[in-house]
Write a structure and sequence with these properties.
This protein has 9 helices and 14 strands. By secondary structure, it is of the alpha/beta class. The structure holds flavin-adenine dinucleotide. Flavin-adenine dinucleotide binds next to helix 1. InterPro entries: FAD/NAD-bd_sf, Flavin_mOase, Flavin_mOase-like, FMO-like.
Length: 411
């Protein structure tokens, strides 16, 4: 990052974004919105990050399998100023997520800021997961990162995750340390929804395949050691974004968080805040206050979630979004909204917490936000409609008359 020092502090001018996944794209867009020059380095030859499906998993990159469908519905996972197409399904297939990212990049003309096949530094995939007894296990075992499809699992007994494999496997066991929430994507009437708990301590002897869906290791090898300090299991970052020890706020980690819903709105909100901090429009507190906040947040996370080395980043979606929105000055003000626009106020208060709400006021206000909120249910309902067929023109040629004969039996 390059910048300059003025009377009121340090201001960035040119910001480097590492990676052109959904978080990186949000960063480029938000930095440009704030008048910063954004330069993105992407090690692969395309945008999309995780959502660009790779037939062969690439070391150092997360991957998905063929049939992945997003858990969050499209309206809840949207960028706040770019509603997804109405005819996209509510829970998108990964190819449609990529399509949505492409539409976003095209609409805001982001591609010209990205340098493809440019790796900031070498990224290594750590494969140090361990599992007691696995060395003596005779069947096939692998991490979910390598899982592309259920091929080869036909008729097998499968242990651990891979719900996708349940379509073809004879039996799939889900093994977890602390129990697990099984969240259905579809609720009543086919609407997007969340549901039910499953936990079972039973022992299973005969297993053919084990899939380790035990989470991912993370690493930032290109960062200096002192910025990789941890608090609990997570990186020591103020509000999950800023390292507290920097003299100037010149680094932000965006999208490194796991909300109980979609990442895009969270990452985008973080990018909006980072752009204002870099620009010098918003100040971060002192190092000691940031450290205190980090420790308090870590403690609360450990009380609320089953945090571990592999699951260090869990946050509550709306409170975290609100928290960062508050810093940016974008948090919806219900009272003034009701006074100004009661119809909109009602929709915001009683409707789903879609990301467009965070564009109604404040510095990143978007004129289309009201319309996006008014039309959100139309976009949810549209995929339920039957396919539109071309209208059939009535035939013009003369038809021979049809005679109906009623034969009534007489007794
Ligand atoms: C199987 C799976 C399913 C998921 N499902 C969901 C879901 O349903 N909903 C949801 O919200 N989230 C889901 N997630 C979380 C997911 O990680 C995020 O949605 C999202 O992909 C994170 O985006 P990102 O841009 O931060 O990272 P990524 O998508 O991983 O993109 C990072 C980019 O940075 C590039 N890069 C990395 N290092 C360098 C470097 N040194 N130099 C240059 N470029 C570099 C990579 O090539 C990549 O393009 C899922 C994750 C997994 C693994």
């Amino acid at each position: 990052m390059t910048g300059f020092l003025s009377n009121d502090g340090w201001h960035a001018k040119r910001v480097v974004v590492i990676g052109a996944g959904c978080s990186g794209l949000a960063c480029i867009k938000c930095f440009l919105d704030e008048g910063l020059e954004a330069v993105c380095f992407e090690s692969s030859d395309d945008i999309g990050g995780l959502w660009r499906f790779k037939e062969r998993p690439e070391p150092g990159r997360a991957n998905i399998y063929h049939s992945v469908i997003v858990n969050s519905s499209k309206e809840m996972m949207a960028y706040s100023d770019f509603p997804p197409p109405a005819d996209f399904p509510n829970n998108m297939h990964h190819s449609q997520v990529l399509q949505y990212l492409r539409l976003y990049a095209k609409h805001f003309d982001l591609l010209k800021h990205i340098h493809f096949q440019t790796t900031v530094c070498s990224v290594r995939q750590r494969s140090d997961f361990s599992y007691s007894g696995i060395s003596t296990f005779q069947g096939r075992h692998f991490h979910s990162w390598e899982y592309c499809s259920a091929d080869g699992m036909q008729g097998k007994t499968v242990m651990v995750i891979a719900v996708d494999a349940s379509r073809v496997a004879k039996q799939v066991y889900l093994s977890t340390r602390h129990g697990a929430w099984m969240v259905g994507r579809i609720g009543e009437g086919g609407m997007p929804a969340d549901v039910i708990l499953y936990s079972d301590p039973s022992v299973v002897d005969e297993v053919d395949v084990v899939v380790f869906a035990t989470g991912y290791n993370y690493d930032f090898p290109f960062l200096p050691e002192d910025l990789r300090v941890k608090d609990g299991y997570r990186l020591s970052l103020y509000k999950h974004i800023f390292p507290p020890s920097l003299e100037k706020p010149s680094l932000a980690v965006v999208g490194f968080i796991h909300g109980l819903r979609a990442i895009i709105p969270l990452a985008e909100m973080q990018a909006r805040w980072a752009s204002r901090v870099f620009k010098g429009l918003t100040k971060l507190p002192s190092e000691s206050i940031m450290l205190e906040d980090i420790q308090g947040t870590t403690k609360r996370m450990h009380q609320r979630f089953a945090c571990s080395e592999r699951n260090p980043l869990q946050v509550d979606y709306i409170p975290d979004l609100d928290d960062v929105a508050h810093e940016v000055g974008e948090k919806p003000q219900f009272f003034s909204l009701f006074l100004r626009d009661p119809g909109l106020g009602l929709r915001v208060l009683f409707g789903p917490c879609t990301p467009y709400q965070y564009r109604l006021c404040g510095p990143g206000q978007w004129a289309g936000a009201r319309q996006a909120i008014y039309t959100q249910w139309e976009r949810v309902i549209r995929p339920f409609g039957t396919r539109k067929l071309p209208e059939i023109q009535p035939e013009t040629k003369q038809r021979s008359p049809v005679y109906l004969t009623f034969a009534s039996g007489q007794t």
